[in-house]
Write a structure and sequence with these properties.
Strand 1, helix 1 and strand 2 form a beta-alpha-beta unit. Helix 5 runs antiparallel to helix 6. It contains seven helices and six strands. The relative contact order is 0.18. A six-stranded parallel sheet has the order 2-1-5-3-6-4. The chain has one domain. The protein is globular, with a radius of gyration of 18 Å. It holds the Pfam family DTW.
Length: 205
């Protein structure tokens, strides 16, 4: 018997059509521009929160690459001193992210991938290493209830972006940006069943 065809997916959010999240995705436009650099291995991940983050922001870009040498226009933009370019990454020298207004437009770079892949993205790209590193406050708790976080305080990419924009722009519509993420998690829990969810993700909480 022929194999069943793969489920059709929404061209915008890439979710199965029966679970499309587009009606929940806002179109927000904060002053800060986000650049999300996604490791290529993450593109097929079922819970691709980087795509949800960028889809909800007019002033955001998703770049799928391992090497920025393939994208010289972005190397130039990230080297442009007329912009306040910063990397959201909890390195040893990272300082807490705070609002600032030095007259320059602000661009925040996020790395999307596992911790190992995010570190690889950083070490493969000198332009990223040259950026000032900023971090979120300690003690944040992820809503990503179907993932066992690798380190305390680890957030999904969409959560990190939403938290950062909330810091930089008081009153930012954080909950609107996170609405499709919340729905995605709830849908995954329903699909696996409450008992399996409790056994796999709540037993050690």
């Amino acid at each position: 018997m022929p194999q069943a065809s793969r489920r059709q997916r929404c061209a915008a959010c890439f979710r199965p059509l029966s679970h499309c999240l587009c009606h929940l995705i806002p179109r927000l436009w904060p002053d800060t521009q986000l650049l999300v650099i996604q490791h290529p291995d993450e593109t097929s991940h079922a819970l691709n929160t980087a795509r949800l983050l960028v889809s909800g922001l007019v002033n955001a870009h998703l770049l799928i690459t391992e090497s920025l040498d393939e994208h010289p226009q972005w190397v130039a933009r990230l080297s442009d001193a007329s912009w306040r370019n910063e990397l959201l990454f909890p390195g040893a020298d990272a300082v807490e992210l705070v609002p600032a207004n030095d007259g320059r437009p602000r661009r925040l770079v996020l790395l999307d991938g596992t911790w190992r892949k995010a570190r690889k993205l950083l070490y493969l790209n000198p332009v990223l290493q040259a950026l000032p590193q900023v971090r979120l406050v300690d003690g944040l708790v992820s809503r990503y209830r179907i993932r066992k976080v690798p380190v305390p305080g680890a957030l999904a990419t969409i959560e990190a972006g939403a938290e950062a924009l909330s810091v930089l722009h008081p009153g930012f519509a954080r909950e609107q940006l996170l609405a499709p993420f919340d729905a995605l998690i709830e849908g995954q829990i329903q699909a696996m069943g409450e008992q399996r969810y409790l056994h796999n993700y709540r037993s050690n909480s």
